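Hi R.,

As promised, here are both runs. First protein below:
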Amino acid sequence: MSTSLIVLILIVIVLVLMYNSLVAKKNQVENIFASVDTVLKKRYDLIPNLVASVSKYMEHEKSLLQEVTKLRAEANKPNISDEHKIALDAKVSSALGSIMIAVENYPELKANENVMHLQHTLHEIEEQISAARRAYNQSVTDYNNAIEMVPTNFMASAMNYKRKQVFEIVESERKNVDVKELFN
């Protein structure tokens, strides 16, 4: 076998390995995003129960409840992009956090067994979402590294692979918690 044929076979093997690696990383991102989507759907299914449970107590926060309901409806629309889902997730997380803070102002509501159960369930789902987001972000980071690093970036460009967006926390959650403010 000639040297040029051996070199050609090695190049083909390397190209096939790079191609398969990129396809595997893309599929991994899609698979993990589907897991995130499943947990988000679970949260969106729970939101009507939460809104129904707290709405009669929280007349003053009616606009907040309407916002959560609107965001939930928007998130359940078919064929929305992954980027839009990520943005909606951040808005829903922020709005749900505001509801949970508002619940603290209603002693009767806070003591209600159904609301306590919903809070507990929401907390569990938020933990699942957090774990799924971490897995997704790691997968996206691996994928983004693969499509940007040499030599796979050339093949990724030829395959028209684009950077994926990671989940990021909302701006309000980046601030330090002022414990002194919480006790006032």
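And here is the second one, sequence first, then its structure tokens:
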Amino acid sequence: MAQFRLQGSKVLAVDMAGDSVKARNGTMVAYNGQMNFKKMSGGGDGLRGMVTRRLTGEQMEVMEVKGQGTCFFADKATEVNLVRLNGETLFVESDNLLCTEATLRTGTSFTGLNGMASGNGLFTTKVEGHGWAALTSKGPAIILRVSQGMPLRVDPGAYVAHTGNLNRSLKSGAGWTTLIGEGGGEAMQVEFTGEGLVYVQPSEKLTFGGDV
């Protein structure tokens, strides 16, 4: 089984003994031992996954890395966060998914307006099964718990990923004052309710509702 560990905060090291992992294309920064790299079609699971990604816009290019030794992955000096899945489903923006164990299944999930507000289209990537996944974030991500009766609101541009049994809905604080240029500056938020964890980065990418 591939062993995931952090080499500092911005590099993922994966120790492999004949194992394989799936990683975003172009994120290998170094390796020792013997490694083979194989580009995967569309980043999903086979032809169906490829077609789904083409249709949904979640077109993350993925490669399979297999070998003996240690392979190091990084992406633009962003922070790397490890997530251990034990049968849960991880929902993550494709730009933030760096690497997964080969045992994990990937696919897409419809997000509707929530996804549009976050600037990543109508669909997001989901990862399921048992194993490690590595996420990237601009700055160290914080992990916020959502519980019954304690909803969480997140800026769409700061959202990275979530796990658990969560519902999310787009909330707007825009009113008539927005129309006359006196909006509050945080007109769009995503509200999470239920039970689960939300990963939030200390940086906001440009979003649909960003500066309203």
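A quick note on the second one: Residues 46-56 form the longest helix (11 residues). Let me know what you think.

Best,
J.
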